[in-house]
Write a structure and sequence with these properties.
Length: about 300
Amino acid sequence: MFAIAIHGGAGTLSRKNMSPAQENDYIAGLGAALDAGHAVLAGGASSLDATIAAVRVLEDNPLFNAGRGAVLNADGTAELDASVMDGRTLGAGAVTGLQHVRNPIELARLVMDKSPHVMLVGAGAEEFARLQGVEMVSNEYFRTPARQHQLERSLRGHVARENELEAFGTVGAVALDSAGNVAAATSTGGMTGKRWGRVGDSPVIGAGTYANNAGCAVSATGHGEYFIRAVVAHDISAQVEYLEIPLAQAVDNVLGKMKALGGNGGVIAIDRKGGVVLEFNSEGMFRGVRTSEGLREIAIYR
């Protein structure tokens, strides 16, 4: 058996404010990413390969807050973060503060595979990217009119609410391959109007991304500061491993703790038994799941 789940952000636009055309566009984008990852698994490749393939499609889709279409900093710059983790080896790679790497998730994989480090930051990460022959682009590549408009509203004092698209838009994937290995990958542009080099949970192993065959693989989306404080992704996997409880219960436990702190968002998680959980405490979460047994579901609301 193999399976993959993806997310395109939690805290989505309320149903009453999303047009049928918008909804169709998001569903199509999620479907393209889901099918790309599934095709990798069906071809016998690893769960890590599948998660990266899925996230790369979402990074290239300007509807989502990752890669092209990422939200903008207070100075109008796109600044990107990503991370990956292999549940078989506990290998991990992360990058943060990128401004010119077209697909941050690919660089995160290279940090894991081609360097002795786990996390690289900013100019150093991009120097490493050039040495690895990664595709570089101008920062303008990431900018879209929608994100520029969101930034202008933010600078005028508008605060994004939980039910607005700019609130949370991180993308991610978790997968189980036919060899029984799990993996996770997450990518984001962060928060609209962020300042001072702010970094959220997405590139932080154990907070926004974690994978361990002994537990599960997790990718998170939401208010990153709370995911870091609650160490959400690792805590879910640890509860599955040490308490030997069902994946759904572990997810509920940890999201409950984060909610008590004041944080909103969601996670996707998968274990070696093929259990998949896509859960959130916001109004909605862009999400999808596809398995070798024929299940294919894409949803935004409950």
